[in-house]
């Protein structure tokens, strides 16, 4: 069976069970980008503490990250872990944004998804999940964000093996919504990823807790 049908069914079941998720939790597009960097290898609670530090210091914006001293930025990011790496990577993103788009997120996100994704992946510290989170949640580009929960759910339902490479997994999910216009695909990918995180946290961690999961009826 093509994975398209069950993925659409999963989406419907999760949406009915959990309702709209309204992701990403941020006030600006730039805050989404910062959060996508900071959430690497840490919990969202720690990210929120670092974001609060940046906000309190008045530097949770492009100009602020551009002008703040690197050592000071490191200290503000300390709650997120790997704070020296993350500070350097945020500085590198601003350098890229300034050099290529005059510091304008609007101009950056006006680029085709494929081109912009390649540019983001070329930046230090930006892997596929971070790049796709930036594209989807900050730029409304129709790309799906694959995470460990996605891998577990698709593997445990015998749709795609856990070890499948990231790009194939991403295209498998995206293909399920290929008949829709880009704006609708972006909206669905936004919700589907957030819903999968809900199901993953509640039922599909390292040890499966299938009882009561909205996806339990779909188990093979």
Task: Walk me through the structure.
- The chain folds into 2 domains: 4-22 and 143-218, Helix-hairpin-Helix base-excision DNA repair enzymes (C-terminal) (Endonuclease Iii, domain 2); 29-138, Hypothetical protein, domain 2 (Endonuclease III, domain 1, Orthogonal Bundle), CATH 1.10.340.30.
- The protein contains 12 helices and no strands.
- The protein has helices spanning 4-18, 29-38, 44-56, 62-67, 70-76, 83-101, 105-109, 113-121, 128-138, 148-156, 166-175, 182-202.
- The two termini are 12 Å apart.
- The mean pLDDT is 95.
**Tally of structural domains:** 2
Named CATH topology of the largest domain: Endonuclease III, domain 1
What CATH architecture of the largest domain would you give?
Answer: Orthogonal Bundle
Low-confidence stretches: none
State the CATH superfamily name of the largest domain: Hypothetical protein, domain 2
Distance between the termini: 12 Å
Q: What's the tally of helices? A: 12
| Order of helix and strand elements from N to C terminus | HHHHHHHHHHHH
Helix residue percentage = 55-70%
Bulk shape = globular
Which percent range describes the beta-strand content? Answer: under 5%
How big is the Rg? 18 Å
Total DSSP E strands: 0
Largest sheet: none
CATH class of the largest domain: Mainly Alpha
Structural class: mainly alpha
Look at the structure and give the mean pLDDT.
Answer: 95
